[in-house]
Every structure is written in C-alpha cells, then in structure tokens.
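Model: You mentioned two targets. I'll fold them one after the other.
Researcher: Yes, keep them separate.
Model: Target one:
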Amino acid sequence: MAFLLAVVAALGFTSLDILRKILGKHYSSINIVIGMSAGAVPFFLFLAAMEGFPAQWPFPLLACLEIFTFTAASILYVQAVKMSPLSLTIPYLGLTPVFSMIISLFLIQEIPDKTGLAGIFLVVVGAVTIQWDRNISFSELLKAPFIEPGSKRMILVALLFGLGTVLDKISISYSSEIMVALALTGGSTLVMVLYQLLVNRRDLRNLIERGGHRDPFFYAAALVCGVAMAAQFFAYQGLLVSYVEAIKRAGGLASALIGILFFQEGHAWTRLPSAVLIMAGAVLILI
C-alpha cells in the first residue's frame, strides 16, 4: 500500500509540473506556489479539525524548520531556472534521493538494504539523464555546478528537498500526516506572501489583478497538490524516506511518456533508456 501511495504522489507531482507550465503563461513561479499552497489549506484544515489538531512538542519547532526549508527551496528553484538553462538545472533535482538517504541515515537511522541502494542508484541516474538535453555534452553537465550559478542553486534545492522529506517524517511522529501538510501549506503561503510584499509587491498584485482566485487551473493545482502531499506523507508509514523520494523522482518516466503520447515530442524517444533505468530502480525498491 505504501508503494502505491508513493506512486500516487509521484504522478501527482508530475501532474503539478504540467499545471505549472499552463499557469506559467500568466503567473510567476512564486505566485503559482502561493496559489497552489493557499488553495490546499482549506482541504487540510478541514481534515485536521476532524482529527482534533493532534500535535505535541517539538512539532511547532519542526514545522518552522520545514516551512523555512520549503520556502528557501522554492525561491532558489525560481532563481536557478532564471539564471541558467533548464538543461543545466533540472537534471540535478535527480540528486534529491541521495541527499534524503544520507540525511535520514544520520537523523532517523534509516538504512536502505543493498537492493534498495541499487534501486536508488538506478532511479537517480535515470532521473538525471531523462531531463538531460542531448545538445549539452555530459562533460558540460558535470562542469556546470562549478560554472553555472543556476546549477549550484539547483543542487542546493535538491539538498533542501532531501532535508525537508526527513523533517516531514520526524514531524509526523509528533503530530499526524494531515497536520504536517497543513503546517507546510499554510506556513509557506504566509511566508511567501510576506516575501512578495517585501521584495516584489507588483508581482503579487499581478496575481490578484489577473483573477488568480478564479482561475480553474489554480483550483486543479491545489487539489492535486493536496492529494500528492497527503499520499507522500502516508507513504512514510511503510517506506524509507529515501525510497519515497526515489519513487517521486521516477515521475520523470511519466513526463517522458506524456511527452511522447500527448505532445508529440519526437526527442522523447531518446529518453526511453533513462525510463528503463527508472523502472528497474523502482522494481528493486519494491522488492
């Protein structure tokens, strides 16, 4: 069941990428995150009320750390894709399961077995290469973190995402999956709105003037965000954090298939070897 929940989370976050592309035609990346997070808050608020808002110390402290991690990662992500080509930034998100594995080893003593390690390795290689633009040489991809400011930031994003997933699992032990989701969506919305008010008030005004609160794609994104986040957190009950994160990164396989089937991306066929690696890695994690 946990594996299926992780797959639901992966497909959900892949769907969010598609919705972000649609919304990105009219709104900035940070405003999209604000809209998605804010839209998911009522959903989690209702469920948390049904639970009785379970929480004990140090959940408030952990929630603050998670909110800071998520907000910092979101802002750095936006900066990364603006400063450097996507082909030299997005592939590095595939490193997230590695950071999750290392951090979880020290903080919660989760140690994957040999088969799981092999699965994580295959998923990481597949996740990196499936986003790799073949117009960029592999040596350029390796050198980018030392040259490209966006590449450095995206590696930091992967590190923060890896830390965030471990903090999520720790926080759940002091509250519940729904409470962690509520704290993360509500807190990050508040922090990013304050950030926009201080740094880019005009951009925030654009979200309102364009009628973001009436845009059906925002409602769809909020719903998918809520389901994907809940599925991810409940998957922690039966899987290691690093496994869940690896399966999430395997969402790149779904992106490749969508590109082939619906967007007639001919070059997507070149991604199939990477897709095979991801599938093989997911199978090793499952067994």
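Model: Target two:
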Amino acid sequence: MKRLFKGLLCLCMLLCLFGCGEGKPKCEHAHTTTSYEISGLSIRKNVTCDDCEEQLEKTTIDKLQYVYNKVLVDEKGIKCTLLDVTLDGWGTLTMNLEIEGTSDKKRTFEVKKMYIDGYDVSVWVYSSDLAGNKKSLESEWLTTITGEDFIKDQSYEVEINYTILDSDSYKKLSEQSIKFNLDEYSSIEEAKS
C-alpha cells in the first residue's frame, strides 16, 4: 500500500511538473504583421503572428486605400489635400486629390507638370475653377508605378508644379512646386468599392 501511495504521489508530482503534456503556453498573437500581394485580379491580405508564425488571416479584397489626408497647398484662396492613393486588383494606382476654394473670389488651380522619381508624367495635367467654399475631386492614375512595386516599396517621390490664377482676370497669383513621398501615409485600409 505504501508503494502504491508513493507511486501515485510521484506520478502526481511529474504531471504537475510537466503540465499534463500541454507543451508550451498558447500564443496570444499580440504582435502581428499584415502583408499584401496582387493575386490574379484581386489583392490578397495575409496576417501572420510574429511570435509563433501562425497564419491568422488570408483574405481577398478588391481595393486597398493608403490614407494620407495631407494638405499640400494652402495659399491664395486654394487648398489642395492629398486624400489617398488606391490600389485595385489590376495593379492600378490612383492618386486622389481634393481641391477647395477658400476665397470668396473665383480661383483656378492648374497642374502644369508632374514627376515621379524624376520621370515626367505630365499626361496628368488638369485645371479646376473654384469659387469660395466649393470643392473638386481629382483622381489620376500613377501609370509609371506598378501595383506590385508599390506594395513592396512606397518610397516614390512625387513633384507637382502648379499655378494659381484669378479666374476673372487670369492674373497669375502663385506658381510653385511641391514635393512629397508616397511612403508618408497614415494608414492602410480596405477601400469601399
């Protein structure tokens, strides 16, 4: 009887010591990495745990939105804000700008030239006539960047040469150049189709 009792006591101690065969503690998935890749005509979103390397999510989405909400120009009665850059499953990148008239006088905002990493992509020339408190949305394709390259590296430098005119007299009020990098976004979201 003493041997049986000692044997059971040793077995209980071993089970307590080794945790009843549960192995290592379950990962809480506190540190995750999200990556994207273009697959066919859609974008694949992959979420993996950095600690245990378990794949937590693998979904397909139609469009990604790199959100900026960055004011590029705010002068002479014109405010120009880079809203976002969207990427669809075809690999097409579109830059979306909001042009707003902030003066009680009518202004014209003209984009004369645009460069991406020094390459002239001036097909992207447009003009917006705006009265006070009116907005215009401008969406333009970034044709020199492939979607696959953009997913891997967003460090493209964009330069836009613009002119602000008084719409009534066509007097030039400002002629400037602005530069910004596409890796300065604030978040990545699934875009509404």
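Researcher: Noted. Anything on target two?
Model: The radius of gyration is 28 Å.
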